[in-house]
Every structure is written in structure tokens, then in C-alpha cells.
Amino acid sequence: MVVTMHPECPAIMLALLGCLTSVLLGFPFGPVPELDVVPRTTVLFNGLWESNHFSGSTVNYSTLLLEDGTATLYVGAREALYALDAANISVIHNNSYIDWAASAEQKKQCLNKGGVGQTECYNYIRFLDRYNETHLYTCGTHAFRPRCAYIDVERFSFVRFEEGKERCPYYSAKGFTGLIVDGEMYSASQYEFRSSPDIRRNFPFPNLKTEETPTRWLQEADFVGSALLRESINSSIGDDDKIYFFFTERNPEQKSYSRQTRLARVARVCKGDIGGQRTLQRKWTSFLKARLVCSIPEYELQFNILRSVHVLEVPSVQDTIFFTVFGLEWNSAKTSAICQYALKDVQTAFDGPYMELQDSKWREYTGKLPDLRPGLCINDQHRAQLINSSRDLPDNVLTFVRRHPLMAREIQPVGGRPLLFKKNVNYTRIAVHKVTAVDGNVYNMLFIGTDDGWMHKAVELGDRVHIIEELQLFRESQPINNMIISQKQKSIYASADTGVVQVPLSFCGRYVSCYDCVFARDPLCGWDGRLCVEVYSYPNRSRLTQDIQMGNRGCENITADGLVSHRTRSVIVGHDVLLLCEIHSNLAVPHWTLNGEQLQGYAVKSVYRIGTDGLLIIGAQSRQSGHYSCYTVENGVWIPVCSYVVKVQPVPSFLSNLSSYPTALPESFFTTTALFISPTSSSDLNEQPLHSLPSSPDSHTNQHMEAVYIILVAVFGGLCLVLTVILLYVSFCAHSAHDGGKYSQDEFSVTPVTERKRSSHVELKTISSHCNGRTDIHYIAASTEGQFLQIIPGIDQVSPDKQPPPAPPLPNPPPMPSTEYANGLSTTLPSVLRKMNGNSYMLLTQADSDMTSPLYHSFTEELSRILEKRKHTQLDVEPDESSV
Ligand SMILES: *[C@@H]1O[C@H](CO)[C@@H](O)[C@H](O)[C@H]1NC(C)=O
Ligand SMILES: *[C@@H]1O[C@H](CO)[C@@H](O)[C@H](O)[C@H]1NC(C)=O
Ligand SMILES: *[C@@H]1O[C@H](CO)[C@@H](O)[C@H](O)[C@H]1NC(C)=O
Ligand SMILES: *[C@@H]1O[C@H](CO)[C@@H](O)[C@H](O)[C@H]1NC(C)=O
Ligand SMILES: *[C@@H]1O[C@H](CO)[C@@H](O)[C@H](O)[C@H]1NC(C)=O
Ligand SMILES: *[C@@H]1O[C@H](CO)[C@@H](O)[C@H](O)[C@H]1NC(C)=O
To answer: Which end of the chain has fewer CB atoms at under 10 Å, N or C?
Structure first.
């Protein structure tokens, strides 16, 4: 048999082989869909310079009204209204406060009402908007009897009160939205507990509301936002101007297999609507609603709870974009998504087919439509048919409207999927701002508040989002409940229960080098050759270096050498040493070289751990002496950060064998293994070995006994350590007031997982390694500041001049914990006590195994997240150099 080979065969085979290899090689490193975006930098509350805070004598700051013209920020809180200087909200002017407490009588009545919580018996300001040139209009819950009032802006005082029923909800936290346009007030809420949710025009007369029979237009709706869009084209009277309402409501299709009991919706009404004549009298004739979809189809992940909406104002109304924050229905899963919707897509849905309720099921309506399309605003076409207002609409149109409030088409987000998906975070609010960057492109900047007092600042890059930084706006963990951007003040204002904070839209001075400035990809920041500066205040934009698209170009010719630090470290053979290399960016990956060669691969794994804090050399051997350099690699650019000369010293002769103990053994040799947990054990462990040292080295039996003691002590110490580590993960006591010695780089602490306390002085460090797309994280567990697990620093073997901090008093040992974590994961507990600089510690390892689901939430992740936020707070800025 003859096999002929086509001349092109080898080429094809080569190509195939190439493909195959690349597939095989590429497989473990293959692209994982970028599901979870990590903020590049973390700014803690204390690092939040240039921010201004305001908090009066009350709480629950939630209603914000910004008037850039007069540079005033009006704030509504519990029983109080404030007029703040938008330039600096910390500055208090005279006459800028209105006390609006519900009367004692009203509060008493409220308390007597059954079913009303005590917390509701205050006046929570829920609504505040401009009424006319001289007055504001505000509404409050007023201890369960809503009231509204006009405020004279000039004097900042009330002029007239009104009944607030059906304009303002009775409850402080009930979903509510409202706005005043052209002297007309629109509001949407489930005003009272028993009433149905309703979208209203409250004034002027005639008031309009939603229909309840035979079809309920709204089902337990929870409103989050509303906006007026002046959509009219070529109409002097604004025929087509509409108000949009955003909410979550009960899923009408309660199928047994349906996991979603609620759905996100957008509804709209025409501004010119005045209701029907007989049918739909005092009801909207233009009400329509449609579903907003926000899902990741690959993972069958459907976000259905709408939390916030921001309408991005653009020059042409038709290009309007709605930015929304979504969450999942199950509260246990802390996960958020940002979806954006184009007004055009919303309009398409409203121009599409209707749904109809047939046999208590919603189906697409396929029958004949009335000649005049139902649900439209009255415009010239209507007037040509002598229909001058909604009252003139024929009955068949109104009857149809009454029964068909829901559209069949669902509204997909721009790009068909969320713009941003974030695990472990509950976003609560969003505000968006358009910025023209140095490259001339316009970028959307997203400011997103979280439920724990943080704000993420991000930039939209095509179909994805880069989170520039996360800022801790409030020291206390609490939801950001409102955010507003001032273009004029270049500030963003965020409110929460305890106060209001004003932060500049950008703070470029935080970026210290050209690359730092460029990596940040902040459209508001550029490098001028010397500093990272605010683009808008720089006279010559074109001279600035900025790279929003790629985030890595423009700094090639700028040497960063000035930032590199050089240090020397010495370590005894067999001990571990940590070479610190701090990385400010959460997106940077550390890379290390030894004598110019990169440390990587499996061979290295057993002796090195590369982490976000530095390089850990495990059991140093003399061949590991040399010149180590740390680089951070971000966006493909290597940047040198620091370098170390490491000298691995031979074991001092007196330690070279145990059977020949010298009399004057360095104290630290014992203390390294002596880990104590409780006062009793501490004294035992700390002193016994030292004090019972044989006075005569010749005594053979004593020597033997000593060795046994040491081993026992070590074993016991290790055991205690293990138990304590378990304990630490499970329980966490208040931080001890004792702030003993300053901790050097080699003393670590453990962060308990069950409770996150950002301000606490405890920390855990990770040393992680990336391999085949999987992340193994190794925890170094060690001392908290004098609490559970104390490592006696002793007289440091390798740095004898270092003063040991006094061993702090220890609390009684907490009760025995179980090894189960809240999320059911357990960690491999360590068996080996390791030594570093005269201290002992252990390495804990946990590997992420199943990371396929975007909802996969691991212990490791939670820890990594905590670390991200804490990273820069605890480390000694000037770690002391050790020498023999
Ligand atoms: C008001 O503030 C208090 C204290 O911060 C908080 O406990 C409460 O939940 C807040 N109420 C509302 C409605 O935000
Ligand atoms: C704002 O005002 C406060 C109080 O007067 C002042 O301490 C602070 O420095 C001001 N902030 C700025 C950014 O000017
Ligand atoms: C604004 O409204 C208030 C309250 O109704 C009224 O007293 C005042 O005259 C109005 N101002 C103007 C300029 O229309
Ligand atoms: C609508 O207005 C026109 C002109 O103003 C008038 O002639 C016509 O009768 C009105 N139609 C109705 C139904 O009121
Ligand atoms: C960097 O310097 C080289 C040579 O001096 C020059 O060709 C190049 O244009 C410079 N690059 C930048 C971004 O300035
Ligand atoms: C320990 O050291 C002593 C003297 O320093 C020596 O005589 C002895 O042989 C050593 N033992 C071992 C096991 O190396």
C-alpha cells in the first residue's frame, strides 16, 4: 500500500501540531471570563485626605438635593434638614438648619399604634426637591403621619405645611421615589403597609394613579428611582415627555420551578396624561411596564433585585443610558452586578407586543390592536384625529390599556450582559459622570456605593469596567444610601446613617510615579513629567501622559530607579526569611529574581513562597544566598520595587549539636519554640526551660533530661498553637487595649474570619502562588498583638540589638472551638512549626478547588478580600535590617 503525501501536508500537520500544542499548553492558562473585577487600589478611611465630612446632631442622612448654581447641598436626615456649602460641606453657615421633629403628641400616638416599630416614631425626611424659584418642597414620615412642607430657600425655613398622605411613605425604609417637574409632583411607593403600591401625580389637579382592577398594574413594587426624559421631538409643548420609574416587583408567573419570586421593571407614564373620561378616570392612560433583564447566561445567573438607578444625562435624550445596580434575591449571597440599558432598547420594548392575562397566566397578546396604539402620549397625530387629550381617547383604547400594562419584550442590557459583576460586595447606589480624557475620548466614570460604607470608583472601557480604586468613605460599616456628583465642585457626595461625606472626583496626588499614574487609568489624572495631576486643572492637556485604553504606555523613558530600595538580610541555615516587597496595586503580580534569574515553576515552590507581601524563603540554604530583586508586574510592565542581598549563615557552632549544650545558651533559642497561650502556660513555657537549665554541662543525665524537656515543650507549644489557631478562626474577642511593642516584619498575626473588623490591629498575611489558573494560598499564622497567640520575640538571634517588646498580659483562654467554619470549609492545619528571626510560626495552606461557579465563595477568597483592604495599614514602614 502506498501512501502519498500531499505536498501541503507537512505544513498542515505542522499547523495542526502547533494548534494542538498551543491548545494543550494554553489550556491550563486559558482565558477565564473576567467575572470579578478587583479594585486596583484600596484607600482606607485614614488615607482619605481631602475629604470633608458632615454630621449634625441627628442620624439617617438620606435625602440629597444638589444645586450647583448656588453651590448648596440640601440634606434631609431624621427630623432635620440642612443647607450645606457644596464647596466644603464641613463648613457650617448660619441659618442652614431646620429642626423638623414630630411633636411629642404625634410620637405618642405613633407608639400606641399597633405594629409600628419604635424606630418609626420619628420624622424621617423622604423627599426634598425644588418646587419653584423661591421654594423647596419636602416630605417626611412624621412619626407615621406623613407631612409635607414648603421651604423658603432664602431664609431656609418652613412657610406652609400640607398633608403628606399618599405623597410620602409612612415607613422610613420603604422603597420610594419622587420628583417635581414643572410644578408637578410625581411619587411612587407603597405608601402605607396595607395599601397597594402606586405611581402618582400628586399635584396639580387632577391627581392620577395606577389601576388595580381588573388587572393590578403593580405587584408589591419596591421603587428605587425615577426620571423625567424630555423625549419630544419638534414639539413645543413636550407631547412625548415621559417619567420613568424603576422598581422590583413580584414575579406574576409564580411557577413552582421558578426560582425568582421577584423581577426588575421599568415603567413609564406620559407627562401630558390627564386620565380617561369614563374608563380610567383619574388613572394613567399611558402606563406601560417592561422587564429589565440582568443576567450572565453562561452561569444561569439572574440578577433580579434592582437596588439603584442613575440616568446618565447626554446631549441627545435619545442616547440616554440607564445605569443600574442589581443584586440577587437570596440575601445570603453577597453579589452585585451593574447593568446598563439604552433608552432606545426601552422604547423598543414599549413599542413591541403586549402581554395578556389568560387563565391566570401571562401570555403574549397576539390579537388585534385598536386603531390607535394604546399607551402612547397624545401628540400631533392624535390631534389630527381630534383627540386633544387623553380624555378624548376612545373607550376601546382605554379598555385595552387597562388590561395590558405589561410588555412582552424583555429589555436586555447593553452588550447582553452585566457591565460589571462583583462578588462579596453588595452595591447599594450608583452615580455616573462623563469625562473627556487626554486621548479625546469620552469615558463614563462610575461611582458605586457599597453596603459597608465603601465606594468603588471605576471607568467603563468598552464592554468592561476597570475599578480604579475603592475608598472607605465611612469608618463605620453602613450602607451608602445616596450619592450625587457635582460637576462644578468636582466632588461626589455620599450619605449614610451617620453623616455625609464629600470626596473629590479624583485625587491624583495619590499616584506617586508615572507608571502608577498610568496604571490607575483614571481619566481625570495624567502624568506631567513630575507629578500625577488633575487633568482639568492642567493648562496643557496634550503634554500629559495618560493611557486609559491599555493602561501601560507613556512612561518608557522615565526611570523609576529612585524608588528602588536596597537592603541586606542575614539568615541562619535552615531558618526562614521573609523579604518584604510591598505592592500598592491589587492588580500587580509580584515577580522575584535571584541573581538575575526569575524564580518560578514547581522546582521553586518547595523552597519559596511568593506572596503579595513579599518572598518567603523556607529553610534557607547557603546556595540561596545572593541578590534578590522584587518586581511588580502590571499590565505587562515590570517595575523594580526593591532588592535584597541575602546572606545565609552557617549554624553557630554552639547549636550544631544538641547533645553538647553550652551553659550560656541564648535565651531566644528557647523562646522561639515556647509559644504560650494562657498566663499559666506562659510562665511555664517561658521560664521553665531556662531556669531548669543544668548548671553543669557535664551531667549526662541532666543533659538528657533537658533534651526531653525541650522536646516536650516544643510539642506542647505546637499543640497549643494549633488549638489556638483553630480557635482564632472561630471566635474573636475585643482587641486588647495593650498595644505593646512595635512589631517588626517577622511577626505576624491572624485575622479571624468570622468577623471582619477593618479598624482592628490584627492582620494575617498571605503567601500565595499561582499555578495553572488555580490559586493556593498559604497563610502564615502568628501572633496577634498580645492576645491569643503570642510569639515571644525574645532576644532576636539574628539581630541581637533589637529590643524585645514586653510579653503582654494574656486573657483567659476562650472556650474550645470547633473546626467548622461558617461556610463549611475547613483548612488543613499545620503540623510543622517554622522558624524565622528567632520566632516561630506556621504555614497554613488552603487551596481553592472549585472555582468554576462565579458564586463560589471561599474562605480563601474572604481572607484575600480582607487582606486586600488591610494590606497597607499594618506593616512597618521601616523594617529593621538584620545582621549576625
Ligand atoms: C437610622 O440610623 C440608625 C443608626 O445609625 C440605624 O440603626 C437605622 O437603621 C437607620 N434607619 C434607617 C431607616 O435608615
Ligand atoms: C473644609 O472645612 C473644614 C472646616 O472649616 C476645614 O477643616 C477643612 O480643611 C476644609 N476642607 C477643605 C478641603 O478645604
Ligand atoms: C413658589 O411657591 C410658593 C408656595 O406655593 C409661593 O408662595 C411662591 O409665591 C412661589 N414663588 C414663585 C416665584 O412663584
Ligand atoms: C380639539 O381641539 C380642536 C381645536 O382646538 C377642536 O376643534 C376640537 O373640537 C377638539 N376636539 C375635542 C374632542 O374636544
Ligand atoms: C523614549 O526614548 C526613545 C529614545 O530616546 C524615543 O525614541 C522614544 O520616542 C521615547 N518614548 C517616549 C514615549 O517618549
Ligand atoms: C557534638 O559536639 C561535640 C563537641 O563540640 C562533639 O564531640 C560531638 O561529637 C558532637 N556530636 C555530634 C552528634 O555531632
So the answer is: N
Ligand 2 binding residues, C-beta < 6 A: 50, 52, 88, 90-91
Residue 206, pLDDT score: 83
pTM: 0.76
**Which atom of ligand 5 is the closest one to the Cα of 554?**
13
Ligand 6 lining (C-beta closer than 6 Å): 657, 659-660
C-alpha cell at 479: 450602607
Measure 496 CA to ligand 1 centroid, in angstroms: 9
Q: What are the Cα distances from residue 475, in Å, to 40, 458, 480, 497, 760?
A: 21, 21, 12, 12, 12
Amino acid at 302: Q
Closest CA to 478 of 494, 492, 491: 494
Tell me the domain boundaries of the chain.
Answer: 1-30+711-803+815-884, 36-59+453-556, 61-172, 228-242+250-424, 573-710
- 176-223 residue pLDDT tens: 999 999 999 999 999 988 889 999 999 998 899 999 888 899 999 999
**CA 658 to ligand 6 centroid distance, Å:** 8
- How far does CA 173 lie from the centroid of its chain? 22
Contact 521, 601 (CB under 8 A): no
Question: Cell numbers of 686, please?
Answer: 517561658
- Fold that domain 573-710 belongs to in CATH: Immunoglobulin-like (2.60.40)
Cα 830 from Cα 850, distance rounded (Å): 22
Torsion of CA 259, 262, 264, 265, to 10 degrees: 130
Atom of ligand 4 nearest to the CA of 383: 1
pLDDT tens, position by position, 307-324: 999 999 899 999 999 999
In CATH terms, 36-59+453-556 corresponds, of 3.10.580.10, 3.40.190.10, 3.30.1680.10, 3.40.50.1980, to: 3.30.1680.10
Going by C-alpha positions, the residue among 77, 73, 78, 69 that lies closest to residue 90 is 73
Tell me how far the alpha carbon of residue 545 lies from the centroid of ligand 1, in angstroms: 45
